[in-house]
Design goal:
This is N-carbamoyl-L-amino-acid hydrolase. Allantoate binds at residues 205, 263, 276. The strands form three sheets. Strands 1, 2, 3, 4, 5, 6, 13, 14 and 15 form a nine-stranded mixed β-sheet that branches. Strands 9-11-7-12 form a four-stranded antiparallel β-sheet, covered by helices on one side. The chain has a two-stranded antiparallel ribbon with strand order 8-10. Strand 3 (68-74), helix 3 and strand 4 (111-116) form a beta-alpha-beta unit. It has helices at residues 2-9, 28-43, 87-102, 129-135, 140-144, 154-158, 167-171, 186-190, 228-246, 280-301, 320-334, 348-352, 379-397; strands spanning 48-50, 56-60, 68-74, 111-116, 173-181, 194-200, 203-211, 215-216, 249-258, 264-265, 268-276, 304-313, 316-317, 340-343, 358-363. 37% of the residues lie in helices and 23% in strands. The two termini are 25 Å apart. By secondary structure, it is of the alpha/beta class. Bound molecules: glyoxylic acid (GLV) and manganese (II) ion (3 copies).
């Protein structure tokens, strides 16, 4: 059952040369996945609604009754991402609904399956864009004006200005449970197929613009150069060092160079810093350390650096009571031991957790690799994930 449904979406957006995925929000592959979502909903007689922010919902029962139990994740990927990050939560959601119904469970609350838009921020730069809009954490006018790398605005991609906060819809959701492939090795190390999340590290994204003087590579004396590439390179090393010192994570995985020519000293290097830490004070100190070192180095290189925050997600502590209840229900139904683990990855569940009781289930990732074509999960573990999610939905929504 799992493999059959999984194989329906596995080819969509897959690069045959690398096995990696490119499923940016509102591009062709992601639209195809949305059509697949609608077809799955129709197959199960679940009406589909859209919140005007690009988030899709399929309903079993009438959400107007309130107290709905929502489950799902996102379709979009990072460039050359894995196939499981996101879609596993949506495929598992439909299969968990099937499992419940096959057992003649009688839902006493509506159950919703959701596909959130632009979770990765891979196209417009703001992660969890759909859930931030829905919860009011992101201003719809600011979002409408965001541009992708080709200069297309979010409003154009969505076909309208986003609708923004929907307190009415949020008020009808009693709980959200997101199933996700684990993005580390914690479950593999304790030999458990499924775990529950305790917390998400605070994290954010900053754009660093290093400006200098574009000039000729052959004729400009080394002493005369104002080369922003040097300041950038130093900053990459400084970020790594600052993170290691603090037991935190810093990544500079994206860079744009102007004019990007072999024989020209660049005039501008734009680099993005992704920084994460176990607590807000450490994250602040990490950012402070990196920017101070970048500015100091810019002074020595005759360049300038400006820092723009693109997103910031505070620490998330998932609802303790819900986590305990789900862990117990999953263990009772499946006989599995269900470890509890924190994560450094961001999720729509983290955004929703500020508004309603929220929990996450993780499915073992044997290598821990994610945001890479090498991301994987075993079929047996994915089936265990569906069982666990069905147990969770049964606990929250059924008699
Ligand atoms: C999304 O997966 C993130 O944590 O960057
Ligand atoms: Mn991801
Ligand atoms: Mn994800
Ligand atoms: Mn994520």
């Amino acid at each position: 059952m799992f493999r059959e449904l999984w194989d329906e979406i596995a080819p969509i957006g897959r690069d045959p040369r690398t096995g990696g995925y490119l499923r940016l929000a509102w591009t062709e592959p992601e639209r195809e996945l949305r059509e697949w979502f609608a077809a799955q909903a129709a197959r199960r007689g679940m009406p589909v609604t859209d919140d005007g922010n690009g988030n899709l919902f399929a309903w079993l029962g009438d959400p107007a009754d309130g107290g709905a139990v929502l489950t799902g994740s996102h379709f979009d990927s990072v460039p050359q991402g894995g196939g499981y990050d996101g879609p596993l939560g949506i495929v598992s959601a439909f299969l968990a609904v099937d499992t419940l119904l096959a057992r003649d469970a009688r839902p006493r609350r509506p159950i919703g399956v959701v596909a959130f838009a632009e979770e990765e921020g891979g196209r417009f730069g703001v992660p969890c864009l759909g859930s931030r809009l829905l919860t009011g954490a992101l201003d719809p006018d600011r979002a409408a004006a965001l541009v992708d790398r080709d200069g297309v605005t979010l409003a154009a991609a969505l076909g309208a200005r986003p609708a923004g906060a929907d307190p009415d819809l949020l008020g009808k959701i009693g709980a959200f449970v997101e199933l996700h492939v684990e993005q580390g090795r914690a479950l593999a190390e304790v030999d458990a197929p499924v775990g529950v999340a305790s917390a998400i590290w605070p994290h954010g994204r900053w754009r660093l613009d290093f400006t200098g003087e574009g000039n000729h590579a052959g004729t400009t004396l080394m002493a005369d150069r104002r080369d922003p590439m040097l300041t950038y390179a130093f900053t990459v090393l400084a970020a790594n060092k600052e993170a290691r010192l603090r037991g935190a994570h810093a990544t500079m995985g994206r860079v744009e160079v102007t004019p990007n020519a072999t024989n020209a000293v660049p005039s501008l290097v734009r680099g993005w810093l992704d920084a994460r830490a176990a607590d807000a004070a450490t994250l602040d100190a990490l950012l402070g350390g990196v920017t101070a070192k970048a500015r100091d180095r810019a002074g020595r290189d005759g360049t300038a650096v400006s820092v723009t925050q693109e997103s910031l997600t505070p620490v998330v502590e998932f609802d303790n009571a819900l986590r305990g209840r789900l862990g117990a229900a999953v263990a009772a139904r499946t006989g599995l031991r269900v470890p509890v683990l924190p994560t450094g990855a961001g999720h729509d569940a983290g955004v929703l957790s500020g508004h309603l009781p929220t929990a996450m289930l993780f499915v073992r990732n044997p290598t821990g690799v994610s945001h890479s074509p090498a991301e994987t999960a075993g079929d047996d573990d994915c089936v265990a994930g569906v069982e666990a999610l069905a147990a969770a939905l049964g606990e929250l929504a059924c008699d």
